[in-house]
C-alpha cells in the first residue's frame, strides 16, 4: 500500500524560507519520478518541481526556478522541497506525488501521477 505524507507547511512572511517534507511508505522507486505540485485558491493544480530517483534529474516550473530546490533522500525515503524567497503567489496547498515510467516532458503533468499525498498548506503574506 503506497502512502505519501507531507509536512512542513506554515504561514510565513514574504522573503522567508520553508522546507516541505514528504515521507514515502510502501513504494520502491528505481524508475520513479517524484514531484511537488501545488494548488492555490481558485486555481488549477500545477507542477512545481520533479526529480527522477535514478540519476537525480530535476525539473522546475519557471515560476520557482532559482528559489525552490527538490531533493530525494532514498535511504530514509524522504522527498523534500526547499523554498526560499517565498512570495504571496506561492500560497497554496502543496502535494507530493509519485509514479513510474514517465518521460521528462510529463514530469510536471498533473494527470500523469497515480500516487498522491493529502497536502500541506503554505501561506505567504
Structure commentary:
With 125 residues, this protein is mostly beta strands. It is built from no helices and eleven strands. The strands form two sheets. Strands 2, 4, 5, 6, 9, 10 and 11 form a seven-stranded mixed beta sheet that branches. The chain has a four-stranded antiparallel beta sheet with strand order 1-3-8-7, with no helix packed on it. The protein is globular. The protein starts with a strand and ends with a strand. The model has no long low-confidence stretch (mean pLDDT 94).
Shape: globular
Supply Rg. Answer: 13 Å
Poorly predicted parts = none
- Distance separating the two termini: 37 Å
Structural class: mainly beta
Task: Tell me the fraction of residues in β-strands, as a range.
Answer: over 45%
Q: How many DSSP helices?
A: 0
The H-and-E topology, N to C, reads as EEEEEEEEEEE
Helix share, percent: under 10%
* Major pleated sheet: 7 strands, mixed
Total count of strands: 11
Averaged pLDDT: 94
Features:
11 strands; globular; mainly beta; 7-stranded mixed beta sheet; 4-stranded antiparallel beta sheet; 0% helix; 125 residues
Task: Chart the SSEs and their pairings.
Elements: E1 3-7, E2 11-12, E3 18-25, E4 32-39, E5 46-52, E6 58-60, E7 68-73, E8 78-83, E9 92-100, E10 115-116, E11 120-124
Parallel strand pairs: 2-11
Antiparallel strand pairs: 1-3, 3-8, 4-5, 4-9, 5-6, 7-8, 9-10, 9-11
Amino acid at each position: 500500500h503506497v502512502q505519501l505524507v507531507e509536512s512542513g507547511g506554515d504561514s510565513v512572511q514574504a522573503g522567508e524560507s520553508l522546507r516541505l517534507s514528504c515521507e514515502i511508505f510502501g513504494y520502491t522507486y528505481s524508475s520513479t519520478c517524484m514531484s511537488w505540485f501545488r494548488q492555490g485558491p481558485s486555481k488549477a493544480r500545477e507542477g512545481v518541481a520533479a526529480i527522477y530517483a535514478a540519476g537525480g534529474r530535476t525539473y522546475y516550473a519557471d515560476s520557482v526556478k532559482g528559489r525552490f530546490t527538490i531533493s530525494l533522500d532514498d535511504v530514509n525515503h524522504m522527498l523534500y522541497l526547499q523554498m526560499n524567497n517565498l512570495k504571496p503567489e506561492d500560497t497554496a496547498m502543496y502535494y507530493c506525488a509519485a509514479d513510474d515510467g514517465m518521460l521528462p516532458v510529463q514530469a510536471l503533468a498533473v494527470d500523469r501521477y497515480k500516487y498522491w499525498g493529502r497536502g500541506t498548506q503554505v501561506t505567504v503574506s
